[in-house]
Every structure is written in C-alpha cells, then in structure tokens.
Amino acid sequence: MKPIKWLFSLLAIMILLIPIISCGKTTSVQTVRVGEVTRSIFYAPQYVAISKGFFEEEGLKVDLKTTWGGDKTMTSLLSDGIDVALVGSETSIYVYAQGSSDPVINFAQLTQTDGTFLVSRKKVDQFSWDQLKGKTFLGQRKGGMPQMVGEYVLKQHNIDPKKDVKLVQNIDFANVANAFASGTGDYVQLFEPTASILEQQGKGHIVASFGKESGTVPYTTFMAKESYLKDNPEAAAKFTRAIYKAQKWVNTHSTDEIAEVVAPYFEDTPKETLKTVIDRYKSQKSFATNPLLDQKEWDHLQKIMDESGELPRHIDYNKLVNTKFAKDAMSE
C-alpha cells in the first residue's frame, strides 16, 4: 500500500505544480529597432503606442532611436542598423530610383499632412500669400518634403519660389530657427514646437499652415526593406496593429490626455506648449487616423516632387507600398 500512496502523493504534487509552471512560461518577445528621422510632437501616435503598451500587447519590444535626418535614417535602414524607419515616403522613391535590389517599402502611415508652418517676423493682421513677394524666405533642405511642399504651396498661390522670393536653403536644419530669431529673413518655414516657441518669445508670428494648404500626402510613414517584411511578416503585422491602436486612441482622446502621455518624450517642452502643438496638428488632421497609405496620396506626393524638380522618375504605387498589413489591422 505504501508505494501506491507514494505514487498518489507524487501525482497530487505534480497536479499542483502545473498551474505554477504554466504561469512561469515566458512568451517570446521580438525586438524591432526603429529609427525616427527626428524627435517631434508631429509623431505623437508613435509615442502613444509605446507609452500605452500597445507594442507590448502585440509581443513586441520597440528599440527607438532618433537618427536625425532623412539621409542618415535611410543609411541606417539600408545597412541594417535599424529594422524600421519612420521617415518621409520620398526617401523610398529616391532609393528605388538608384536601382536598389532590396527596395524600401512603405507599410504603415503615421502622418498625412505637412507639419510645417509659415512664420512671419512682423505681426500680420490680414495675411495673404502675395505678401511674400520680394521678401527673404528661409526654407528647408533642398529635396526634402518640407521644402518641396513649401515650394508647391507657393506655386499654388502664384508665387515663383525661384523668382518672386529670395529663397534661402543653405542653413542647416537645426539652425534655421536660430538664424531667423537672430534677424535673418522675413519669413521662415518651421516645424512645431519651434514655431510656437518663437511666437511665445515674440520673435515671430504663425500666419499660415503648409499642411492645410498642401492637402493629404504620405508625409511620414513606417518603412522597411522588402527582405525584412518578407522574413518578418508577423512582426510587421503586430507592429502595424499597435500603431493602429495608437491612432484610434489619439483620435478619440483629448489634447490634454495626449499631452500627458507623450510628455516624457519632450521633457524640455512646457506642457502648455505641448497642448498647443497637439491641438494644432489634430485640428488640421495631420495625424493619420489609420495606417493605410492610399494611391491618391501617393500620386499627390509624386506630383509635389515632380513640380519641385526632385522626382527622379514616376514609381508605381504597388512597387513601394504594401497595404496588406494596414488592411489586415483595420479589418480585425
């Protein structure tokens, strides 16, 4: 009888241990290395996805770093320094036009308008675009989306950026605001929160939005090499689902709530400035409400690039845009 009692005791212990062992199991977590072209409130949904744990819910760990500039971001992606890049879609066109054997594919859109604003040195009660004629305009880097959109908007208002304004493009991105604050130029094209900070300091006045004027474009998207998406389709699907959760969250929560969540990423920016900027971007629908990059936006992007003389050649939508991950996320 004793061996039988011993056997039953052993079975009882094993039954009690099963739940403990099950609870101790760890789910495999995949790390995705993401390079953002700059640190910007413009990318609020991305920070929401991280802060609210949406990536963790999908079994992903996001290793985010700022790669400072389109060229550096794309170099990091092509050299496998990062897995996913958050950068303007025009960069994928430039890479493809150079004959890449492993093209960079846009798979999830984050912002859908330009994020820059026109800042005037003088306070203007009744602004009209023709007031720029004959003035010095500090633009952005040649070939980048801000500059191309800037020129496109000027042309829409019958201003030739090469003839009607003194266009300054030789100032480094990081120093454009400082150059303007120091007295260079009559108008400047700036991202937030720099534009609002200059306004608060009395050194400039926001008079227009390039985002409102230029229409919807795939201004900033998540992209990866074709080989990465082929080898990691599950990670790409999870990543896109997390972004979509964040987009829905941003779309249904207040400016104050969004500011609270993203504040840790902008420790040097006052909370009130954060709120001002987020509200401005929300009101002009800069944050995409879903990750789908549609063909109309893609065609508009290439039109803007073509008019600025920066489009190397027209690239078919299906060559550089993968909509599967976005559509699957939206249908779930």
UniProtKB/TrEMBL annotation:
Cellular component terms per the entry's GO annotation: periplasmic space
Source organism superkingdom: Bacteria
Transmembrane segments: none
Cell location: Periplasm
Predominant location category: periplasm
Keyword S-adenosyl-L-methionine: no
Keywords attached to this entry: Signal
Stated family: Belongs to the bacterial solute-binding protein SsuA/TauA family.
PANTHER family according to UniProt: ALIPHATIC SULFONATES-BINDING PROTEIN-RELATED, TAURINE-BINDING PERIPLASMIC PROTEIN
Protein name in the entry: NMT1-like family protein
Source organism: Priestia megaterium (strain ATCC 14581 / DSM 32 / CCUG 1817 / JCM 2506 / NBRC 15308 / NCIMB 9376 / NCTC 10342 / NRRL B-14308 / VKM B-512 / Ford 19)
Species lineage: Bacteria, Bacillati, Bacillota, Bacilli, Bacillales
